[in-house]
Design a protein that fits this description.
It comes from Fertoeibacter niger. This protein is mainly beta and 403 residues long. The chain has one domain: YVTN repeat-like/Quinoprotein amine dehydrogenase (Methylamine Dehydrogenase, Chain H, 7 Propeller), CATH 2.130.10. The chain is 8% helix and 48% strand. Strands 4, 5, 6, 9 and 10 form a five-stranded antiparallel sheet that branches. Strands 3-2-1-35 form a four-stranded antiparallel sheet. A four-stranded antiparallel sheet has the order 11-12-13-14. The radius of gyration is 21 Å and the shape is globular. The N terminus is likely disordered.
């Protein structure tokens, strides 16, 4: 099923490019530009570097090591500093303007936007339907913002209180938000999911999803990881609320999904499944889950938005693996770092992945490097030295027309 959708996606993407090539060549110059934003493990610092030559694109001082979440547009990066009780936002300096047959690319200086989004213990940042939701673990509140307001300096989010404090999440879906539900006992920190409206009022019943953690969007569908399966939230026609459905993973053996990534050109999800496996999940298939065992424990994984069938998985032996999501199999592996054991604290400095055009960018904290592996060659092509202890990483950018 994914194979037929891939063919259609490739065909659809080819048609516009053929149709506009002559005019595009006459009126526009094409440019590709990517920036990497790297959070330091040892100090509150984000360092931005240009992918093409490794030059600095800015250094931004924060209160603590941040968790980084890019917006869907790539215009902003949200730097979550949970223990410091704040979220700050970086204007990446890379913007695209859609013109139907092409997009214009504008590159300016990256900058730390003034102000901050204050909270008790802000955590998950989730974007959907043009709305950015920030869940505060310390209070259970949800802050809702539009990226345009953030860029214009209007840091005045709509605040909802759908439940009590817990390590939760909120996913905007049109006029509704899917939010996690805390349990009443300490050993049940999260028991399920519910739908609320934009005033925070519950719509319908709670869908059981024990220990819910992790979410992703693919097409218009959200998926959430549970201790015993996955819950999908599918939008309804008209003004009706999204429909929640629980799909068990009990036949896959021991393990559960707690981190998810969503496909872009194809509708699928890739999730972790215990420490030594990942699982492909396709809501539209009868056999929805395909488990892929890994040679050693998983460190990080990422999807390639431009190469629809590619996923990349780094394991603790320092190997990077190419997973073909169509075939559900690892097709290539390459040694990229020294081993990074998964024993120890979960916050210990270990590599993280980001995809930037034709490269997979991998932080190597102990060596002070970002390693760049070519998507086609699947070999390390060069490195970028980075000050401090490079840890978290996101990539923004793409190709567009310049005038």
């Amino acid at each position: 099923m994914i194979r037929s959708r891939l063919s259609m996606a490739l065909l659809a993407s080819a048609i516009p490019s053929l149709a506009v090539t002559p005019a595009f060549a006459q009126d526009h110059d094409a440019e590709t530009h990517y920036r990497l934003f790297i959070g330091d493990h040892a100090e509150g610092m984000i360092r931005a570097v240009e992918l093409d030559d490794g030059a600095s694109a800015g250094t931004f001082a924060l209160d603590m090591t941040p968790a980084l979440t890019p917006s869907a547009s790539g215009r902003t990066v949200f730097a979550v500093q949970g223990d410091a009780g704040k979220v700050t936002v970086i204007d990446t300096g890379i913007a695209f303007e859609d013109h139907g047959d092409h997009s214009d690319l504008t590159v300016t200086e990256a900058r730390l936007l003034p102000g901050e989004i204050a909270g008790n213990v802000p955590a998950h940042v989730v974007e959907g339907s043009g709305t950015i939701a920030i869940f505060d673990d310390g209070t259970g509140r949800v802050s809702l913002l539009a990226e345009a307001d953030v860029l214009s300096g209007k840091l005045d989010p709509v605040m909802l209180q759908p439940g009590g404090p817990h390590h939760g999440l909120a996913a905007p879906m049109g006029d509704y938000i899917v939010v996690s539900v805390p349990g009443e006992a300490e050993d049940q920190p999260r028991v399920g999911l519910k739908v609320v409206d934009r005033q925070g009022q519950q719509i319908g019943d709670v869908m059981a999803c024990p220990a819910v953690h992790g979410q992703a969007q693919s097409a218009r569908v959200f998926a959430f990881g549970c201790k015993d399966g996955v819950v999908i939230a599918t939008p309804s026609a008209g003004a009706a609320p999204p429909v929640l459905q629980h799909i068990p993973t009990t036949d896959l053996g021991e393990g559960n999904v707690s981190t998810l990534k969503g496909g872009t050109a194809l509708q699928f999800f890739l999730g972790n499944f215990g420490p030594n496996a990942v699982v492909l999940f396709e809501p539209g298939r009868d056999a929805r889950f395909r488990k892929i065992d890994l040679p050693t424990r998983r460190v990080d994984f990422a999807l390639d938005p431009a190469h629809a069938r590619n996923a990349y998985i780094l394991t603790e032996d320092g190997q990077l693996h190419l997973l073909d999501v169509i075939d559900g199999a690892i097709t290539k592996s390459v040694q990229v770092t020294a081993p990074y054991s998964m024993d120890g604290h979960w916050r210990d400095p270990r590599p993280r992945l980001a995809v930037a055009g034709e490269h997979i960018a991998i932080t190597d904290p102990l060596q002070g490097l970002v390693r760049l592996v070519g998507v086609d060659s699947f070999e390390e092509e060069r490195t970028i030295p980075v000050e401090g202890v490079p840890y978290t990483i996101v990539a923004v950018g793409g190709s567009g027309a310049t005038h």
